[in-house]
Each structure stands twice: as C-alpha cells, then as structure tokens.
C-alpha cells in the first residue's frame, strides 16, 4: 500500500478524515475523502412528476402559521375564484384571530384553531380540506406536511420544505404513497424576469444553457434580532451553529427550472465554502450590553456570513448559489443565466446580452413583448395590484389553484421541494469538511431522465378568475 493510501486508511479509521483534521504534520485535508450521502435505494412507488390529481371545483384551504408570512397568503387566496378559506391555525390565538378579522366582509368565514402546539392536527382531522397551506418555522414544515398528506390533503409548504436529507425523503415517499401533491411555495419561480428568462431559455434564446447563478443576499440582521419579529426568535436560532446555504431555494428554483433539473437534467455533486462571522456576533454583543433579553445570544455560535455553493449537473452544467443574510448589502438573488449564445442577469438591474453585447432598452422591450409567458399576460397586472413581493406571490397562488381546479400537474412537485431544500444540509456537510465534494441524492430515482419539463403554457387551464373589483 502506498504512503498516500496508508494515510487515507488511517484517517478513515480514526474518523478524522470527515473532520478534516491534520495529523502529525501531514496535509490538513485529504481531498480524496469525498463524502457520500447515501442514496435512498428504494424504487419510486409512483412518479408524482407530471401527475394530475382529480379536478377540484372549489379548493377548500386550511392555513397553518399566521405570523409575518401567512396572512398575506390568506388575503391573496381570498381574491381567487374557486377558493374557500375553511380554517386558520396558529399557535398564538391573536395571530389566528387577526387573520380571520382580515376576511370580514368577504365570502370566507374560516374556523379558527389555536392555543396549542398541536391545534393544527385537530384542524386537519376535523375540517374537510383539499389543501393545507403551511407558513410555520422551518422545523415544523415536514411534520405538518406529512401529517396533511397522510390525511389525503394536498400541501403547499413554505421554503425551505425540509431541513435534513431524511426529511426530504420523507416528503418524497409520503407524496408518492398518498398521491397528493406536495408543492414547496417557491414564489421566486413566478417573478416576472424569472418567468421571462424561463420562456426565453425554452425558445432557445440563450442557446445551450451552460451556467446559472442565484442567491439570497438579504440583510435580515435587524429583523432576526428583533424581539417582535419571528416568533420565539426561531430564525435567529436557525443561524446559530449552522454553516452553509441556509436558504437556498429562492436562487435555485428559477435556475433549476431553466436547466430542467429533475426533468431532463439532474444535480450530480456540490462543493460549499463559508466565510467566518463578522456581523451577527457583533450585533448580539451590542444588544446584550443594553438588554438582558439578548444575554443568551451574546456568545452564541454564529457561523458563516457569506456561503458560496457550486453545483455540477449530470449533463455538465454548473451553478453558483450564494447566501448572506447579515451583511449590509443591497438585496440580490443574482438570477444569472449564461448560455452558448446569450446571457441574462436580474441584479443589480435586469439586463440581457446576445453574444458579446448587452441589448438596448428598445431591444429589451421587444424581447419582453416576444417572450412574456401566458401566465403573465393573463394575470400579471392583476398580480401587481394584489401584491406580495411585487406580484410573484399572487401568480404562484393563482397558478396552484388553477392547476388544482383543472386537474393539471403542478409546476413544482415534491422532487423539487426535496432537491432544492436538500442543498442546505448538503452544503453544511461540505462546509464542515473543508469544502469536500458531496454527492446530491436523486430524489426522482432515475425518473429525471424522462420527466417532462415544466409546462409554462396555460394549456388545459387559465380558467380561474381573479376577484378584484375594477
Ligand atoms: N417565500 C417567501 O418569500 C417567504 C417570505 C417570508 C417567509 N417565508 C417562510 O414562511 C415561513 C414563516 O415565516 P414567517 O416570517 O411568517 O415567520 P413568523 O415567525 O412570523 O410566523 C410563523 C408563525 O407560525 C406560528 N407557529 C409556530 N408554531 C406553531 C404550531 N405548532 N402550530 C401553529 N402555528 C405555529 C407562529 O406562532 C407564527 O405566527 C418560513 O418558513 C419562512 O421561511 C417565505
């Protein structure tokens, strides 16, 4: 056995390889010790990609989680034809009651479930629901989604859908077993420039797609440390002790749809690297000096501010995803697509290039006229009036309801929820191992080769009206 092999064996046996620990002056990390995430070896029970559930004329919805995000979803759904808001649930009675109040004067009179950690189970057991819409803290997403699916309810679950690889598989297996949809509510797939570039990619404007970039760069420091922000400081706690791309799906979703990931291409492996913390610990110390409430947060284990994750696909494409929620920077999801003939990027300002040159403003308008997808023509202006991140939230909700009412496959299936969410624990694993390469599980278990790309037309649907007065 060669010296190198001997060293590898020693590191493997001693369990030090995974920790990247240097021994006796040898190299500090053995690049050959690639960390494998074991694939789920079972066969798919059923392929949910492209699955059309039976049509539902009136979609009866129960909401769980009515903090900062949930009430906006309730309001948006109240503007959609063929929706009945049947039930509202939040741990905190005040939150649930105020969401109910918001619906006064509308056709909706939901029952409120509240006051206990498990009131949501009571809601699912009691109410005749078609869809459970989940807007709770991250660690509750999977228990709630799985319980709802096992009760035969379709699920819409906020981002990220799951926190661990096991949880991702649990979502996949439950959706396949129950044949109900589990859609992660990745609203950024429905933003205007993202939809435009998806259609441009489909029509071949960029040529072969080679590379994509996305991000979640959003300074949340003040909100994360605000006592009256996230319930029980859950989101600040998520940033303690964890190091990776903690909120990957906003950047990933639109790029994956453009690359047909899960539907013609698949992720292969990734590598992830984080900076140290220069922001959160500092903020905690300033606050703790003035207010005892922050004492437990003062010396907490804050980790990387900027995480960069790079991903290779099986068809040879690359992606770069960044996450930084603590540096004082302008908001950005990057959204860059680079192809063999053209490119586009959304931030800092939306620009498109053909060959070596950015196109002019007049050409940009021509592109918009030519490639704006049907969903935007149909409900884009109404979506802007309803609002929700400039309209993308409403387009997402409208499309979800229109698909359910017309018995159409959803644009985002459980495999997307699982894969896009899985990038977080996989990036954490890579960061913890000096950026070693990590295999990405194939949640479609081979079906990615034949799954059809997302249908961006409204074929078979587009029949659901928006209930806005003139
Ligand atoms: N897609 C987007 O653009 C977007 C934007 C903001 C938030 N989000 C996501 O929405 C989710 C909620 O975020 P938020 O900002 O509203 O947080 P939040 O803390 O304001 O709200 C969470 C709510 O869940 C409730 N809750 C906690 N435990 C519960 C339980 N056992 N039963 C019922 N309710 C319970 C809390 O009381 C709280 O009202 C998160 O997953 C977040 O990532 C997504």
Describe this structure in words.
The chain is α/β, with parallel strands linked by helices and 470 residues long. The chain has a domain of 287 residues: 2-Layer Sandwich (Dihydrodipicolinate Reductase, domain 2), CATH 3.30.360. 35% of the residues lie in helices and 16% in strands. It is built from 16 helices and 15 strands. The strands form two sheets. The chain has a nine-stranded mixed beta sheet. Strands 3-2-1-4-5-6 form a six-stranded parallel beta sheet, with helices on both faces. Helix 5 runs parallel beside helix 6, helix 6 runs antiparallel to helix 16 and helix 7 runs parallel beside helix 10. The chain is globular. The chain starts with a helix and ends in a 31-residue tail after the last strand. Bound molecules: nicotinamide-adenine-dinucleotide. Nicotinamide-adenine-dinucleotide binds next to strand 2. The site of nicotinamide-adenine-dinucleotide has 27 residues, from strand 2.
Main attributes?
six-stranded parallel β-sheet; Dihydrodipicolinate Reductase, domain 2; alpha/beta; globular; 35% helix; binds nicotinamide-adenine-dinucleotide; 16 helices; single chain; 470 residues
Largest sheet: 9 strands, mixed
Order of the strands making up the biggest sheet = 14-13-12-11-7-10-9-8-15
Low-confidence stretches: 1-33
CATH C-level class of one domain = Alpha Beta
The CATH homologous superfamily of one domain is called: Dihydrodipicolinate Reductase, domain 2
Number of strands: 15
* Mean pLDDT score: 92
Task: List the total number of helices.
Answer: 16
Approximately what portion of the residues adopt beta-strand conformation? 15-25%
Helical content stands at 25-40%
């Amino acid at each position: 056995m060669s010296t190198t092999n001997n060293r590898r064996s020693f590191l493997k046996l001693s369990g030090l390889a995974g920790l990247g620990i240097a021994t006796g002056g040898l190299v500090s990390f053995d690049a050959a010790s690639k960390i494998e995430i074991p694939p789920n070896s079972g066969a798919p029970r059923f392929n949910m990609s492209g699955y059309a559930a039976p049509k539902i004329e009136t979609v009866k919805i129960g909401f769980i989680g009515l903090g900062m995000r949930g009430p906006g979803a309730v309001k948006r759904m109240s503007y959609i034809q063929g929706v009945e808001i049947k039930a509202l649930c939040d741990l905190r009675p005040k939150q649930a009651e105020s969401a109910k109040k918001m619906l006064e004067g509308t056709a909706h009179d939901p029952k409120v479930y509240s006051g206990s950690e498990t009131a949501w189970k009571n809601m699912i057991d009691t109410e005749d629901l078609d869809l459970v819409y989940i807007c709770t803290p991250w660690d509750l997403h999977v228990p709630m989604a799985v319980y709802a699916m096992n009760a035969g309810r379709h699920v819409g679950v906020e981002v990220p859908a799951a926190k661990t690889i096991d949880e991702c598989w649990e979502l996949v297996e439950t959706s396949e077993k129950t044949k109900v949809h589990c859609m992660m509510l990745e609203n950024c797939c429905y933003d205007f420039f993202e939809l435009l570039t998806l259609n441009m990619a489909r029509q071949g404007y960029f040529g072969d797609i080679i590379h994509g970039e996305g991000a979640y760069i959003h300074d949340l420091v003040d909100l994360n440390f605000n006592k009256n922000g996230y319930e029980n400081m859950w989101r600040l706690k998520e940033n303690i002790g964890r190091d990776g791309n903690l909120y990957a799906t906003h950047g990933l979703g639109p790029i994956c749809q453009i690359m047909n990931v899960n539907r013609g291409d698949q992720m292969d492996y990734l590598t992830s690297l984080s900076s140290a913390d220069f922001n959160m610990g500092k903020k905690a110390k300033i606050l703790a000096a003035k207010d005892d409430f922050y004492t437990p947060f003062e010396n907490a284990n804050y980790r990387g501010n900027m995480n960069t994750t790079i991903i290779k696909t099986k068809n040879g494409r690359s992606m770069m995803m960044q996450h930084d929620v603590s540096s004082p920077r302008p908001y950005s999801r990057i959204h860059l697509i680079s192809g063999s003939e053209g490119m586009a990027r959304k931030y800092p300002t939306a620009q498109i290039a053909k060959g070596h040159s950015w196109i002019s403003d007049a050409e940009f308008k021509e592109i918009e006229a030519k490639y704006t997808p049907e969903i935007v023509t149909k409900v884009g202006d109404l979506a802007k009036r309803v609002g929700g991140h400039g309209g993308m939230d409403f387009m997402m909700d409208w499309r979800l309801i229109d698909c359910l009412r017309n018995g159409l496959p959803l644009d985002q299936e459980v495999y997307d929820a699982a894969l896009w969410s899985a990038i977080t624990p996989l990036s954490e694993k890579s960061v913890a191992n000096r950026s070693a390469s990590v295999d990405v599980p194939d949640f479609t278990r081979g079906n990615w080769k034949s799954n059809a790309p997302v249908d961006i037309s409204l074929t078979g649907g587009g029949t659901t009206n928006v209930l806005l007065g003139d």
